[in-house]
Structure formats: structure tokens, C-alpha cells
Design a protein that fits this description.
alpha+beta; four-stranded antiparallel sheet; about 210 residues; 4 strands; 10 helices
């Protein structure tokens, strides 16, 4: 892949700095210097080259987040504290998508939009092999699937921090929380701390019927 590595690192370092300040982490400048060095080495690693081969997986972004997790692990923080701190750095991006989803939730066909997202994502993931589905069913009022292999988890596991992959697993939960009028999202388990990712996405109107 072609990218300006130094520009990318500077961009993520800015986000990380914001997160460190929000998290009241000491020695911010030293940690940013370490982060830039760490991420530069990671972008030149064989594992990065391997995982960059999945079109549906933004390895550039995932590795930038992994590098943040590795830095924060040195401060003796819990997983939930690390996730909260990193999310604070991406608050502007997350708030934009929340506003977008809330607009969609006002539409009468919000569930159908979510249904199409899931079917399209499933097809793309199966095509590039980034996710392995044990099953994927899409009926009129419900989508249910079970994922037994995920390259996001593999990337985090490469650096010994599998449990912190929950920061990406949580994006589904966060998204559907912003479609409360139309979608009921049930997460039975995820791969960050379980054997599979088992989700149900249910049309609330069908459930009422």
C-alpha cells in the first residue's frame, strides 16, 4: 500500500496527545516521542504488511490504535481505562457518526438500512477473508451471525493485548445504541474475551408484532 508514513504518524500522534491529556497521563511529550517511534516500527513490520492485505480492514488505523494501547499499558491502567482514554482522543470522529446515526434513526426504513449494511459487510468480509462466519442468517426482521475468526483480534493478539481488541468490538454496540427507535442489538459474546462473536440485530417493529 502507498501512504505517507510520517504524515500518518503525526496525525495519529495528535489524536493520541489529546487522549493523554484527557486521561491526565504524565510526561505526555515523552510518551508521544515513544509512540511515534513505536508506530513507525510497527508500520515497517512483516505483520503490518500481512494485515494490510485485507481491503475491508484499515490496518493503518488499527495499528495506530494498537500502538496507543501498548503505550498506555505501561501506566498500569485497566483495559476499561485504556479504552476510555483512547476513545476520548477520537471523540470528534465518534460524535460525527453518532449524529449521522441519530439522523438515520428518524427515518422509517432505518432497520432496512442497517440490514443492508450488514449483508454488504458480510459479503465483503467473506470475499477478502478478514472474518470467518460459522453462520450468517438474514431473515425479514432479524440478522444473526457467529464469527469464529477475526483479523482485528489477530492483530491485537500479535502484540499480546487481545483483550484490548474490545475497543473495536464495541463499535457495533455504540453504533446500534444510536438507532434505538428501530434496532435492538443483542451481543451474546465477542472474540476479545470469548470463543466467538455472536450478535443479533432485530427490527423492533417486527418484535412488537
Amino acid at each position: 500500500m502507498t501512504m505517507d508514513i510520517e504524515k500518518t504518524i503525526r496525525s495519529y500522534a495528535k489524536i493520541y496527545r489529546k487522549a493523554l491529556v484527557e486521561g491526565k497521563i504524565k510526561d505526555v511529550d515523552d510518551e508521544i516521542t515513544s509512540y511515534e517511534k513505536r508506530l513507525r516500527e510497527m508500520y515497517h513490520s512483516e505483520s503490518f504488511q500481512k494485515y494490510s492485505g485485507y481491503p475491508t480492514t484499515n490496518a493503518v488505523h488499527v495499528y495506530a490504535v494498537i500502538a496507543m494501547c501498548l503505550g498506555l499499558k505501561r501506566f498500569d491502567l485497566s483495559d476499561s481505562q485504556i479504552i476510555d482514554i483512547i476513545n476520548s482522543g477520537f471523540s470528534a470522529r465518534r460524535n460525527f457518526f453518532k449524529r449521522l446515526l441519530r439522523c438515520i434513526d428518524r427515518m422509517p426504513n432505518a432497520y432496512q438500512i442497517a440490514r443492508k449494511w450488514n449483508i454488504s459487510d458480510h459479503d465483503k468480509r467473506v470475499k477478502d477473508g478478514s472474518l470467518t462466519y460459522d453462520y450468517f442468517t438474514a431473515s425479514e426482521g432479524k440478522i444473526e451471525y457467529c464469527i469464529s475468526k477475526c483479523v482485528y483480534v489477530e492483530m491485537f493478539e500479535t502484540y499480546g493485548i487481545r483483550s484490548l481488541c474490545k475497543i473495536f468490538c464495541m463499535t457495533d454496540t455504540t453504533s446500534y445504541e444510536n438507532l434505538p427507535r428501530h434496532v435492538l442489538f443483542i451481543r451474546h459474546s465477542d472474540l476479545s474475551d470469548g470463543n466467538c462473536c455472536h450478535d443479533e440485530i432485530i427490527d423492533k417493529r417486527m418484535k412488537r408484532d
